[in-house]
Amino acid sequence: MLYFWLKIIHVISASILFGTGMGTAFYMLLANRTKNIKLISIATSHVVKADWLFTSTSGVVQALTGFTMIYLHGYSLYQLWIFGSILGYLIAGLCWVPVVYLQIKLHEMAKYAYENSQGLPQKYYQYYRYWFILGWPAFISLIIVYYLMTAKP
Q: Hey, which of 19, 54, 56, 107 would disulfide with 44, CB 3.0 to 4.6 Å?
């Protein structure tokens, strides 16, 4: 029965992790396309909060429930689907850490620009480009993790 509930929590937290990532990325992209510094400042603030609140907690829940289910079921960490899932999860996490840093910096720059009636600095666009690029390996690796966890090839 414990395994069943862990699996439910695992699936829900995976949905939150992936959904928040997609949602915040979409929100950030749309806000930046407007070139409206006030909107960008507000959006980057919300994205940072959402990432800390939902992405970080669901990422921790994913690891805890995943490893607990592996242990309870007696799976080997060296099975392709488990090893691949862990690897994909680590890739996404390694991309997420600098993304959060970049989001904080993007928010600080946008807030400063808005409060001082200035344009966004060139560094903002450089950091935004890095943020965008880092999102792709995280997104692709989580798609692969979803496949591996579902298909268990």
A: 107
Q: How far apart are CA 6 and CA 70, in angstroms?
A: 11
- Output the pTM of the full model: 0.90
Q: Which domain holds residue 38?
A: 2-151
pLDDT single digits (tens) 56-69: 999 999 999 999 99
- Which DSSP category does 56 fall into? I
Q: What is the 3-state secondary structure (H, E, C) of 61-110?
A: HHHHHHHHHHHHHCCCCCCHHHHHHHHHHHHHHHHHHHHHHHHHHHHHHH
Split into its structural domains, the chain has a count of: 1
From residue 4, alpha-carbon distances to 14, 54, 57, 65, 73 in Å are 15, 23, 21, 11, 11
